[in-house]
Structures are given as structure tokens and as C-alpha cells.
Amino acid sequence: MQKSYVYFLTNKNNTVIYIGVTSNLLKRVYEHKTKIRKGFTYRYNCNKLVYYEEFSDINQAISREKQLKAGNRKRKEDVINKQNPNWDDLSEGWLFYFD
């Protein structure tokens, strides 16, 4: 079974939080950082990965994404702060090479 992920991105000033779901976190973060897709994260410069969770089932990931999106800003900040209190870019140093 393929792994799935729920992830949070923010901008350099941590003023916007984007929540997404993917089955390929490395590729998806690359797409956000290189602004391949012109959407919310492109518009608001969200390219810093500050949080992610791994799931063994895409349906679990989608369910968790909906739960997280339903929360207010404070709840989202609490989720990030629990694992990444400095809001560091967790993808720092990742190599973005694809076949």
C-alpha cells in the first residue's frame, strides 16, 4: 500500500497556513517550491514545509486533512508548535531530483 501525507506549508513570515494531502510528499513540496502550479500556494508564497503526517491509507490522510482544515488558526498553530516550535522548513536540505 502506498503511503500518503497531510502537510502544512507557510510563507516566509508564517502568516498563511496551507494544508494539503498527497501520496508523494517530496514531489509535491518540489511543485510548491518551484511554483509549477498556479494556485493558493503560488499566490500566497507558501513554500515552507512546517508540518506533515504520514498515513498508510489515502482515505485516512484525506479524513485527517478535513479535520485539520476545519480547525481555526490557533488549532493549526498548536499542531505545528507541538512538533516544530521554531517553524523550521522541514524540507530544508531535501534533494529535488526526479526521473
From TrEMBL:
InterPro entries (UniProt xref): GIY-YIG_endonuc, GIY-YIG_endonuc_sf, UPF0213_domain
Gene3D superfamilies registered for this protein in UniProt: GIY-YIG endonuclease (3.40.1440.10)
Database matches in SMART domains: GIYc
The organism's place on the tree of life at top rank: Bacteria
Domain GIY-YIG, chain residue ranges per copy: 2-78
CDD domains: GIY-YIG_unchar_3
Segments crossing the lipid bilayer: none
Pfam families found in the cross-reference section: GIY-YIG
Homology family: Belongs to the UPF0213 family.
Protein name: GIY-YIG nuclease family protein
Organism of provenance: Gelatiniphilus marinus
Source organism phylogeny: Bacteria, Pseudomonadati, Bacteroidota, Flavobacteriia, Flavobacteriales
